[in-house]
Amino acid sequence: MEWDHLFDDLEGQLAAEWESERAALDAESERLRISKLTLHDRLRSMTAGENRVLLELTGGEHWDAVLRVMGADWVGVSASGDPRLRLVPLSAVTTIGSDHGVLLSSLSPAHGEAGLRERMTFGFVLRDVARRRTPVTIGRGDADPVQGTIDRAGADHLDLAVHDVGEPRRTRAVRGFRSIPFAALAWVRLESASGVV
Length: 197
Known about the structure:
ten-stranded antiparallel sheet
């Protein structure tokens, strides 16, 4: 009878040790998985639910934004009640504020493969905006926004014909031209629906 209690105690101790070791391995496995997550992965998860976040950008701008679409190195948002899509390079994002539930859900493993849109680079999307002749407003960190039409987008810069957004890009409407490095861009707002990615 006493032997039965002894063996029951030993079995209980062994089961508790195994459970403790399994929990430690699970926790370490989860830490390892999270250590491999990128900001892109987390934003992809947040974008799937079109979550509302506080987006802080270089130059000090901050927006109450809804995450709409995720690209390879950019995110598309609607900011501060404005339905126009703003393309924001991830390099211009300094902070993303969200509630705790959104933050925790962004740690979940991604579901499914990345779509074609998520493989489109910022330059690729800007070349498409240029092809469509979509009027844009460009935010450049600490500088004033500039409006016009992207004439062309290279590997690391774009050429902008500066004109009022309400006017079509015509020679008489253009007030000048700017070459702007992608590194200087904080955001690009599409001023018409024809340029929606």
